[in-house]
Design a protein that fits this description.
- The chain has one domain.
- Helix content is 63%, strand content 0%.
- α8 runs antiparallel to α9.
């Protein structure tokens, strides 16, 4: 879901950081505010409060693991998916397929976070926010941003040499590591969390649904119009834009019941949404739509909420067996370590597939197979690294 590979943070690009675009690249520095696709439910809180698997919440663990796999797949597919006309057509179609299929991942993380955090029975205090939740975002963000910066400073000859103040300004403006945009975004949601939960404590079902509907109109309907037609809506609806709607949607989907007819309708719309996501990425590039990249890199397209909602409800209502099965154990392990995996998987991809490192080559093997193989390799290495780091004092606080 992103194109251009950029390695340096120019002053000009730092000033463009307010753009909602995302740029995935083989470099770990991304000079533009990201928005496409990478993780929060892996943390029952934006990538952070990994919870122990509970029998009645296995669907949440499964979805967190699924979203983690989808994020890594997306990051392996993004670059070739943007190379229409420059790589073999079958490879491009394979990459575009994975790209469209996995776009649900970050919204799903946020939905799952909302489903776990928001509750009318909770009294969320400011003290809890700043002593417990925010540190789990801010500490990893600062530590691993510095780590990636130093790592590339010493091991990547093309990495820009600049002053500490330069990188400090860049850190303030944009993620120094492209997938860390998620941590910036979740920090904002966390800051609003006590207020949103106060609304949840007093809101009726219809009032919560009203919030979601207004958010969908402001974020997805007006959003796609503004991107496509280069317009700007003058109605003050910023509170209803961004990922905050997915956060509230998570609470709504978990807390309220739906008729069988409604569920079947949502399941059908979910299937249609996934097809539309894949087809949209292909058609936008084939017909060279002027704002194709902007739409692909944004999360304003209206099919994603239906894909996420349908998938969430399907797994929530699926009659999972109570027996311990091998695939459940794998899902639980990935879910438990998903936050650390998210932080480290890009580093693993660089070490294994990046130029100047191992640069593992798959020859002429089709991307239909290469992309999932790369995903499995990065997932496995990241999982092992997380397990090791969790045994190291102090470092265990960063994952």
């Amino acid at each position: 879901m992103r194109v251009k590979t950029e390695k340096h943070i120019s002053t000009e690009k730092v000033h463009q950081s307010h753009s909602p675009k995302v740029r995935f690249s083989n470099s770990l520095i991304l000079p533009k505010s990201s928005k496409t696709t990478i993780l929060h439910f892996m943390s029952q809180t934006a990538a952070t409060d990994a919870i122990q698997s509970k029998p009645h919440l296995f669907y949440a663990d499964f979805l967190r693991a699924l979203a983690t796999v989808a994020v890594i797949t997306l990051h392996n597919a993004a670059d070739p998916a943007a190379q229409y006309g420059h790589i073999p057509q079958n490879d491009w179609l394979s990459a575009a397929f994975y790209n469209g299929l996995c776009r649900f991942c970050v919204p799903m993380f946020v939905v799952l976070s909302g489903s776990l955090l928001l509750s009318p029975k909770k009294d969320v205090t400011i003290k809890e926010l700043f002593s417990k939740r925010l540190p789990k975002l801010v500490i990893p963000l600062v530590f691993w941003s510095a780590f990636y910066m130093l790592f590339y400073h010493y091991f990547d000859k093309t990495y820009p040499s600049a002053s500490f103040l330069y990188y400090l300004k860049a850190f303030y403006s944009v993620p120094l590591v492209f997938h860390f945009w998620f941590l910036y975004m979740m920090t904002g949601i966390y800051l609003a969390y006590p207020i949103i939960n106060l609304f949840i404590r007093s809101a009726t079902e219809s009032q919560v649904l009203y919030f979601i509907v207004i958010w969908f109109i402001a974020n997805c309907v007006l959003g796609i119009i503004d991107v496509s037609l280069e317009t700007a809506n003058n109605i003050e609806l910023h509170i209803f834009t961004g990922y905050i709607g997915y956060f509230v949607l998570g609470y709504y989907l978990k807390s309220f019941s739906f008729s069988k007819r409604t569920l079947n309708t949502l399941y059908t719309l979910c299937v249609i949404a996934f097809i539309a996501s894949i087809a949209g990425i292909i058609l936008l590039q084939v017909y060279q739509f002027k704002h194709a990249t902007d739409l692909i890199e944004s999360d304003v397209t209206p099919e994603i909420p239906f894909a996420v909602a349908g998938l969430f409800l399907f797994m929530k209502n699926y009659p999972f067996s109570t027996k311990q099965q091998w695939w459940k154990k794998i899902a639980n392990h990935i879910s438990q370590e998903s936050y650390g995996i998210y932080i480290l998987h890009v580093l693993c991809m660089q070490l294994m597939f990046g130029k100047g490192f191992l640069n593992i080559d798959f020859g002429t093997l089709s991307l239909l197979w290469v992309i999932p193989i790369k995903m499995l390799m990065a997932l496995s290495l990241a999982f092992i690294m997380v397990k090791i780091l969790k045994r190291v004092p102090l470092l265990n606080r960063t994952i």
